[in-house]
Fold:
Amino acid sequence: MAEQSRYETQDPLFTEEEEETYKRPSPHVLIVGAGLAGLYLAILLEEANISYQVFERAEKVKTL
Structure:
């Protein structure tokens, strides 16, 4: 069986052989807000190789 990342689990509905041939659709995550939590989530998704898009309504970056 292919190596799984820490973000994936084996699907109980498939046998090991079926799991090898089944290609799960890649999720796309929309992150609303580029604050600390939104940017941290973007980092985690990047590490998990999950596509994402960050939306922020502010036009300028503000410091804390």
Residues 33 and 40 are 11 Å apart (CA to CA). The longest strand covers residues 28-32.
